[in-house]
Each structure stands twice: as structure tokens, then as C-alpha cells.
Design a protein that fits this description.
alpha/beta; two-stranded antiparallel sheet; 12 strands; globular
Length: 164
């Protein structure tokens, strides 16, 4: 059973960072945690995001920043289904998702800013590819690869430590 984010704040406030983003939950799992792996996306190019889904360790949480690209959904039920099938604990997207009805059926945590009906695409020539495994900053916190994220309906926290 996962420790709640309010309990973690009560016990370890000096050791955790609290995301100030008002995340929307779309996955079937409302509480999740795990080590962070990161992806930053440019120019609506989702190739690195798909690579992260295909290679992230089971139990990990993929944190993706795509907010600086044109509005589109970075993930729908197909990509999320692949991630859930691989045992990914959750995906946090600083951007948008789609296919909500399908996402809700998956046993995985999914947090995003909202929804958008248009899908992202693989790169075309001349577009920048994204980057993986770098520190991202959004929601007034740093998302560091290898640190731990804890998410539930009360909020989202990041810590260097794993709490049981």
C-alpha cells in the first residue's frame, strides 16, 4: 500500500518538494509512486516519449514536458496501453492527453494538464528530437531522474528518497 502524500508531508516536509500544478487524473490508478525517468519534447515530436515508454523500467514513473510545443495530446489509449502493459507505474505529462475513456480503464496513474483531441506525431525531417534523462523544471519543482515521485488525489511530491 502506498503512503499518502499528506502523511509524507507531515513526516518529511523538509525532504519533499510539492508540485504546485493542479494535475488532472486520467488513469485507472489514482495513487502511484516510483523512480522518475524524464523526457523533454520539442516541435510536436513524440519519438523520445515513445522511446521512454518502450524502455523505462517496470515500476517507474515517466515525467514528460511537452508544454513548449504546439497544443496536441502527447498520449492516448494506445501509448498508455503499451506503458501499462510494461508495468509502468505512472506517467505525468506537462501537457495534454486524449482518449480519456480508454485511459480510465488502465491500471496505471496518468496525470496531465488537460485534454486535446489532436495527436502528436513522429518527427519529420528538420524537426528537433526531444531529450531524455535530464532534470526538468515545472510545477515549481525539479523532476530529477532517479528521484522518487509520489502521487495521489491529494497532490504530487518528489523526493530523493524512497519512502515505504
Amino acid at each position: 500500500m502506498q503512503v499518502s502524500t499528506p502523511d509524507l508531508c507531515d513526516q518529511y516536509l523538509d525532504e519533499v518538494s510539492i508540485s504546485e500544478t493542479r494535475w488532472q487524473s486520467y488513469g485507472g490508478r489514482k495513487a502511484f509512486s516510483g523512480p522518475i525517468t524524464t523526457v523533454k519534447i520539442f516541435d510536436n515530436n513524440n519519438r523520445k516519449f515513445m522511446e521512454a515508454i518502450e524502455t523505462a523500467e517496470p515500476g517507474s514513473v515517466i515525467v514528460m514536458d511537452g508544454i513548449f510545443s504546439k497544443p496536441c495530446a502527447w498520449m492516448g489509449d494506445r501509448k498508455a496501453g503499451i506503458a501499462a502493459g510494461r508495468g509502468i507505474a505512472g506517467i505525468i505529462i506537462n501537457g495534454y492527453v486524449r482518449d480519456i475513456e480508454g485511459l480510465e480503464k488502465l491500471d496505471m496513474g496518468i496525470l496531465a494538464l488537460g485534454t486535446h483531441p489532436k495527436a502528436s506525431r513522429f518527427a519529420t525531417e528538420g524537426k528537433r528530437e526531444g531529450e531524455r534523462d535530464l532534470t526538468l523544471t515545472f510545477g515549481q519543482i525539479d523532476w530529477v531522474p532517479g528521484h522518487y515521485v509520489y502521487a495521489d488525489q491529494s497532490g504530487v511530491l518528489v523526493s530523493e528518497k524512497k519512502y515505504n
